[in-house]
Amino acid sequence: MVLYEQYAEEEIPLSDYLKKKQAYAKKAEAYQKKIQEIEAQILKGEEQKQKEKSEGLQLFVQYKGVEELSYDVLHELIEVIYFYDPEHIEIVWKYRDEFLEATG
Fold it and tell me: What's this model's pTM, rounded to 2 decimal places?
């Protein structure tokens, strides 16, 4: 507004007014872009915070030092275990996706 008032009161010529107006517009655009980047970072941080608070991830952290399986560990972390033969076993984790997202 100050710039326009200077032009309106003939304190600065039209060419200076247009140059300064364009410079201010570029600055405003850069600030707007920076705001969008910061908002995206905030959103990403909030999503990461939610992932870290997830029940599944908390259970993996709780049991990260376990050296042998107990009933409690099996019950809380594992959905099902398939025994195909003595050399082929498949374990389906309850919270596999959350763990992979957090570690990937």
Answer: 0.43
| Structure-block tokens of residue 61 | 């952290």
Distance CA 45, CA 40 (A): 9
User: In this structure, which amino acid lies at residue 69?
Assistant: L
Q: Is residue 58 part of a domain?
A: no
Q: What is the largest CA-CA distance in the chain?
A: 92
Q: Please tell me the predicted confidence (pLDDT) of residue 101.
A: 55
Residue 58 vs residues 65, 95, 103: alpha-carbon distances, Å: 13, 10, 13
Q: How many CA atoms lie within 13 A of 101 on its CB side?
A: 14
Question: Cβ neighbours of residue 52 under 8 Å, at least 6 residues apart?
Answer: 102
Q: Whole domain around residue 32: which residue ranges?
A: 1-53
- Domain annotation covers residue 59: no
Q: Which residues pair with 81 in a beta bridge?
A: 91
